[in-house]
Amino acid sequence: MLDVTDLQIELMTERGVVRAVDGVSFSIQPGETVTIIGESGCGKSTTAMGVLRLLPGDEAVVSGRAVIDGHDVVADPGAAARLRGDTVALIPQDPMTALSPVHSVGGQLGEAVRLREPGLSRRAARDRAAELLAQVGIPEPRRRLRLHPHQLSGGMLQRVLIAMALAGRLKLLVADEPTSALDVTVQASILDLLLTLQEETGMGILMITHDLGVARLVSDRVHVMKDGRFVESGEVEQIVDEPAQDYTRSLLAAVPRLGSWDGASR
Amino acid sequence: MSGPLLEVRDLVVEYATAGGRFRAVDGVGFSVGRAGSLAIVGESGCGKSTIARALVRLLTPTSGEVLLDGQDLARMPERRLRPIRSRIQMVFQDPYGSLDPRMPAVDTVGEPLKLRGVRSRAEREREAARLLDRVGLPASTIRRRPAEFSGGQRQRIGIARALAGRPEVLVCDEATSALDVSVQAQVLALLNELRAEGGLTYVFISHNLGVVSEVSDEVLVMRAGRTVEHGPTGTVLAAPREPYTRALRAAALDPTTMRGRKPRDVLAAAKGATS
Amino acid sequence: MTTAVSGRPSAVTPAHLAGAAATRRRRSRRLKLVAGSICTAIVVLPVTLAGVLPIPGSDEQDLGARRLPPLTDGHLFGTDQLGRDLLARVLHGGQVSLLIGVLAVLVSGLVGVLAGSAAGYFGGWADAVVSRLLEAQLSLPLLMMLLLVVALFGASVPVITVVIALAQWPEVARLSRSLVLVEREKPYVDAARMLGLRRAGVLAVHVIPNIIRRAGLVVLLLLAQAVLLESALSYLGAGPERPFATWGRIISDGQDYITTSWWLVTLPGLVIVLLVVGVNLVGDALYERR
């Protein structure tokens, strides 16, 4: 689904060239969730943006290979543009600013639908939009279509963005800290939605997060990133239970301990 | 003087909004003894930060009392309040916005010293340097401006500034939530050390139960401006009584103790807790 | 983030760097700064050194050499209708024009920053008073007002300075007010209040120092406008009294001959344009560097 080899991303800043991503390789199979975890500035978001070719060409130089669905998007940035919004989609960190505040949710979702199926009538697009909202677990979808982003909570907006991603024939979803702007009680439901949709559609998920708890919950495989490189990679259980690298151990040790508690057993 | 150092009684804070008056804090009360540590926990919009701002009188409560050593600060006029403001200080959430971008660290920390009446500049700088050293900032960096420090270092400067007034109560309003976990762990360790050596009293505002478990003796759980549950930290986290607290507890992810769980299980546990 | 330390070769080519946004920004900024400084210096240096340059006096008439075109008989800018060297008149006149401009922006900057900051920070009646004054100034026909003041108090250098400052302080005040409105919501302002600083103290120690650079840039741009305004007043006959040969008066005196002697109007006009463009470019470059 996604096959990244020796990806290197250099940012051209006023203070010179900075190597934000220094030769990382990973792959995602259909139906699989792969997580890149690391602290701020480690290059995890830059990796995601680089794979999607969303970094401006006059600011970042991407090299190496990143093959999405058979197309090398490093060699052919145009391919990335065609894939985005059809088979590849991004869920951003902050749902509040990702939607236009002056247009209704239905208008924006309908537009996303018609972009993928240009022949569709306005009415049919609206029906499809309502269907998508229902699919992401928003109750009363027809009524919500008329609302504007500021009338919805952060968790709802994140669901709308996921619905937008579903408008195409989604094969790869890139989620950049999708829950870090949300309350903890909402976080689990959004993660659950993503995994449910993954079961339904068989899409691959590239998850970017700084939260080991989130990584533990959703990932099949994890890459621990530091200073632009992967310091440790492997199955999520192995990384959390038997970390091989000091850096991973220090990250785990820094997470405040809550102790065990199992709500269900009470 | 006996009795708690800080006591809050029936605190109410209302805001005027377009749709009428909104009650952000609705009759919250608690008390903290000297060298005690209380955490106020809740999700965004529950009113916890409003309480923090009311404690340091960045806003004036609508009603209720904030008793510091028996003296009510809640509605005290600014003129009388100013000399005793230094007794209760706050560490802010935002490490980027809470320091004057133009001021070198040593001056930022020196400012409360000036207000405390330390006249000589040399003496202020010496004391500021000592405080910055205490919070772990290298002496070679103290003349730098905020932009040259990392988020964690800025938070340390903010703590040093709060300490400079020799406060008895330190309010930490999400003081570590903008930091990376490894930096957060260092800052929490520092706060615990300061409490152990200086007898500081803490009020911790946080949405993170893990953080709360590391720093507080007592927890107060808030929802929609009201107290949901209040008790010793160990008890509340290990055996929450109220459904909302259980939902919060279930949703808090501790990577080391969640063997084999999926989001669905977390969700089910949270739902089971609320229903 | 890390700079390249591994053995992996960089994929950044010189062509990438040349086209990089960062490079472009730096190049455009430098270009503006250099071009602006040169334009400004071409005008300001000769004007300040007018006294020591080897040029004829600005009031030396030579009725035998009236309205000579530029570059004749050692008159770089030619001569005017009374045979006076135009270059000398422009340079000496510039001293008065620039002096008035600098004084005016200093006054308007000071008043504007103080009034605007107070309005933005304290709100309430302070804001009400300042805002009403700003609106009043907007609703009056500015040039008419200025002419009236000059007519009432006479056209001396201090009066003209005050008049121009009167015209310009609202711009600085409006900007300062909006900058302070943003700044006062930042947590460091709360922190200062929490420490026990008085409100005026917070404004003076923390807020104003953080807006002064941005407000100062606008003041710099106003310098160009002040020179223009002074020229406009002089052109309308309300400038400093003769013998001060300000730029506006030179142009005003020369306009009768515009059909036969183009340089009398054009050359002083070009000098003003050069200064205004130069100052604006420098201001732009400094603004982008923030």
UniProtKB/TrEMBL annotation, chain A:
Gene Ontology CC annotation, any one: plasma membrane
Keyword Transmembrane helix carried by entry: no
Predominant location category: membrane
CDD domains with a match to the protein in the record: ABC_NikE_OppD_transporters
Keyword Nucleotide-binding: yes
Keyword terms of this UniProt record: ATP-binding, Cell membrane, Membrane, Nucleotide-binding, Transport
Domain of life: Bacteria
Ranges for domain ABC transporter: 2-252
InterPro entries xref list: AAA+_ATPase, ABC_Ni/Peptide_Import, ABC_transporter-like_ATP-bd, ABC_transporter-like_CS, P-loop_NTPase
Gene Ontology MF term list: ATP binding; ATP hydrolysis activity
Protein localization: Cell membrane
Pfam annotation, one family: ABC_tran
Gene3D superfamilies: P-loop containing nucleotide triphosphate hydrolases (3.40.50.300)
Membrane-related topology note: Peripheral membrane protein
PANTHER family named in the record: DIPEPTIDE TRANSPORT ATP-BINDING PROTEIN DPPD, OLIGOPEPTIDE TRANSPORT ATP-BINDING PROTEIN APPD
Family recorded in the similarity comment: Belongs to the ABC transporter superfamily.
Name the UniProt record assigns to this protein: ABC transporter ATP-binding protein
Species annotation: Nonomuraea diastatica
Automatic annotation (TrEMBL), chain B:
Stored PROSITE patterns: ABC_TRANSPORTER_1, ABC_TRANSPORTER_2
Chain ranges of the ABC transporter domain: 6-249
Organism this protein belongs to: Nonomuraea diastatica
Cleaved signal peptide residues: none
Keyword Nucleotide-binding: yes
GO BP of this protein: transmembrane transport
Family, similarity comment: Belongs to the ABC transporter superfamily.
Protein name: ABC transporter ATP-binding protein
GO molecular function, a single term: ATP hydrolysis activity
Annotated Pfam families: ABC_tran
Keywords, comma-separated and alphabetical: ATP-binding, Nucleotide-binding, Transport
TrEMBL record, chain C:
Keywords: Cell membrane, Membrane, Transmembrane, Transmembrane helix, Transport
Domain ABC transmembrane type-1: 94-283
Entries under InterPro entries matching the protein: BP-dependent_transpt_permease, MetI-like, MetI-like_sf
GO BP term, pick one: transmembrane transport
Matches recorded under SUPFAM superfamilies: MetI-like
PROSITE patterns in UniProt: ABC_TM1
Primary localization: membrane
Membrane disposition: Multi-pass membrane protein
Subcellular location: Cell membrane
Residues passing through the membrane, by range: 33-55, 96-122, 142-167, 215-238, 262-287
UniProt GO cellular component terms: plasma membrane
Family: Belongs to the binding-protein-dependent transport system permease family.
PANTHER family reported in the protein's UniProt record: D,D-DIPEPTIDE TRANSPORT SYSTEM PERMEASE PROTEIN DDPC-RELATED, OLIGOPEPTIDE TRANSPORT SYSTEM PERMEASE PROTEIN APPC
Protein name: ABC transporter permease
